[in-house]
Amino acid sequence: MPLLPLTQLPAWPAFEQAVLHARPDLNQLRLIEAAGLSLDFSGQRHSNDYQSAAEQLLAQRNFAEQRQVLLSGGIANPTENRAAWHNLLRTPAATAEVIHERERLNAFIRDADLGRRWRHIVHIGIGGSDWGVRLSVGAFGYTKLWRNVRFVANIDGHAIEAGLADLNPHDTLIVVASKSFTTAETLQNGQRALEWLQAAGVKKPFEQLVAITARPDRAAKWGIAQNHIFKLWDWVGGRFSLWSSVGLTTALSVSADVVAGMHSGAAAMDKHFETAPFDSNAPIQMALHGIANRSILGIGSLNIAPYDSRLAYLVPYIQQLEMESLGKSVDVTGNPVPVPTGPVVWGMPGTDAQHTFFQWLHQGSDGAAVDFIMCQQADHRWHNHHQSLIANCLAQREAMLRGKSIDQAYEECISQGHDPEESKWLAKHRTHQGGRPNTLIVLPRLSPYHLGALLALYEHKVFVQGVIWGINPFDQWGVEYGKNLASDIINELNNQPCAKQHDTSTSYWINLLKAN
Question: Catalytic site residues?
Answer without folding.
Answer: 324, 355, 483
